[in-house]
Input
Amino acid sequence: MQIRSGLLVAICLWLSVMESLALLDHEGEIINKCIQSYGGLTPELGERLERFKEWSESYEEIPCFTQCYLSEMFDFYNNQTGFDSAGVERVFGAPIYAACRKKLELPEGSGHSSCTHAYAGFHCLTKMEGHPFMVIESMPNLTKVAKDAMKDCLQVVDQDEWSSFAAFASFPVVEPIPCYTRCFLDKLGVFDQKLRRWRIPAMQQKLGVPAKGARYGACHQRRGRNPCATYYQQFTCYVLAI
Output
C-alpha cells in the first residue's frame, strides 16, 4: 500500500473540487464520514485538517477523528489492537517506525487502543515523514558514523533552514543549506587539509561515493566562490560520477 505524501493536506478544497483531488481510494468519503458528528466537512474543519501536522502532540483538535480515519482507511491500525508494526514499516519505513515506536505501542496497562493513542501515534508518523533525520537514516550505503555526522551538522543550523534539506536530492548548483556539506565532510575527515586532497577510499567506505569504477578525475578541479561552495561542488561531482 502506498500512502501519498502530504496526507490530509488541502482537504478544505474537497468542498468544491473533490473529484480533482489526488486522494487515496474512498478517502474523501471516509473523511466526511468521520466528521459527520461535527457537522460534516465545513471550510473551518477543512482548515483544521490541513494543519494536522501542526496540531498539539497531546490535543486532537477534532476529537477521535484520527482513530476513525485510520480504522476505516488502513490495515496498519485496528481500534482494539492499535498499530501493526509490520504494516507501519511497510507504509512509512523502518526509521520512522523506530522514531515513533513508543507512541505507536499500546500504553502500559492498556489492553486496547483509544482515540488518544491513535492520534498520538499517527501525528508522530506524519510529522516525521520527510523529516531530515529520517531521510538521512534511510540513505543507503552510509555508515552510522556518516549519518551521525550529517545529523550533528543539522543541529547547528537554524531549524528554519531544515526545510531546504530535501532540495539536496536534485543537486542544485547552489548548496541549499550553506556550508552544510563542508561541515559533515570535515567531521568525517575525508578531506586532507594539509595536502588539499580528498581521501577517496575513506569517502567510499563512509559515504559510498564515488562509485567504484566511476570517472571522477576532474572533480577536484571544480571551484566555488568560497571554501564551502567548493566542497559542495566537488563532493556533488563525486556523487554524480559514473
